[in-house]
Amino acid sequence: MKQAHNYKPNMMVGDQSYPAYQLRNLLAYLRQHYGEEVVELLCSQIGAVGTIS
């Protein structure tokens, strides 16, 4: 499995973490390295609807 080089799990915006930003980055990484099918599967499993890009 490839490792993410730019993923920052402790990214903070102000004094709070920003989970939507983290999710967007994670999905972009998965899309780039594993394809759209993996992203769609993950989104369906976590209940994310609509287009997340």
Word description of this protein:
The mean pLDDT is 78. The protein is built from two helices and two strands, in the order ββαα. The longest helix has 16 residues, at 19-34. It has helices at residues 19-34, 36-46, and strands at 12-13, 16-17. The radius of gyration is 12 Å and the shape is flat.
Brief descriptors of the model:
single chain, 53 residues, mainly alpha, two-stranded antiparallel ribbon
Q: Would you kindly provide a brief summary of this structure?
A:
This protein has 53 residues and is mainly alpha-helical. 51% of the residues lie in helices and 8% in strands.
Strand and helix map with partners:
Elements (H helix, E strand, L loop, with lengths): L11 E2 L2 E2 L1 H16 L1 H11 L7
Antiparallel strand pairs: 1-2
Helix pairs in contact: 1-2
Tally of helical runs: 2
Helix content: 40-55%
Class computed from helices, strands and strand pairing: mainly alpha
Give, in order, the helices and strands: EEHH
Low-confidence stretches: none
Beta-strand proportion: 5-15%
How big is the Rg?
12 Å
Care to count the β-strands? 2
The CA-CA distance between the termini, in Å, is: 22 Å
